[in-house]
Amino acid sequence: MKKITKTLFVATLAISPLLASVSAVADYPKRPVSFVVPWPPGDLEDIVTRMIADEMHKQTGVPASVINKPGGGGIVGALDVSRARADGQMVGSFVADILTTHIHSGNAPYDQNTFEPVGIFLDYPFVIAANADAPYNNLAELAEYSKENNISLGHFGYQALPTAITFKAAEQQGIRIASDAAFDENNCATLATGDATIINTTTQLILSCLSSGEVKILTSLTHERLSIAPEIATLAEQTGITQTTWNGLFVKAGTPESVKEKIADIAQAALNSDRVRDISNTTGAGIYWIGGREAEELVAKDFENTKELLEYMNK
User: Fold this and answer.
1) Which family does it belong to (predicted)?
2) 196 — phi, psi (to 5°)?
3) Structural domain tally of the chain?
4) CA–CA dist 286, 292 (Å, integer)
5) Domain housing 275
6) Running DSSP on this structure, what letter comes out for residue 234?
7) Tell me, what's the pLDDT at 67?
């Protein structure tokens, strides 16, 4: 009898983690889920994350909402997620900078082990844009123009990955930037008012003036040419610089795998919708899904790659 009891006890221990995992996903979400977007509303990560939140509510019946918490280049919102429980009730929608350059620079109150990726879903259509009547159409022509004329750059801050990429490209191409400034939003008004000669921004923020013909794209910081501007060569084509910027869903480290898998399933269902395809076609954004081990490897790779860019910005 004692031997049987002991055997049953050992067997129970063996299946306990499995039962706990099943229980976690069966009970998730237990209460309203918050998706934290550490930027103002309106850009692509915000729009797509709202669709994911809507899908979660649709599938589970539990309220899910997006909380916009800008500040500190994304650190303020990321800090909220870092303080949350590891239960998937708070999910961060994070740009690459939050997991890379901010940690390297030492201004993040968390480290590379604080978060775990659920999945990467967006290749930002970052571009360098100028007024349509500017006498240059690519980086080589901009470099030539800058020899005799002052160029001012509008960007999202020195610790933003696209900013570092832009400055590196400028140095490589011989583009002389006379002045630069950081803006919360680099949009049509930034160029129209003359606050900047060129801006580093996303297509989503300048769609209206691209459509009207008031603004043009000089290059895109993307893996592939933009579907909305296939004639414009990417930064990689013009300079050889291949680094791009992504956005993904992240949770506090230690969140049960089953919970992450459920969030991932819901996210992929949202991304496989006509609405998301329309956004991709309209903005040129690369919308896809990289999950699991592949997502972890991508984050780790970019964590190492951004060291060089940060060293360049700090020299």
Assistant:
1) Belongs to the UPF0065 (bug) family.
2) -150, 150
3) 2
4) 19
5) 33-124+245-314
6) B
7) 98
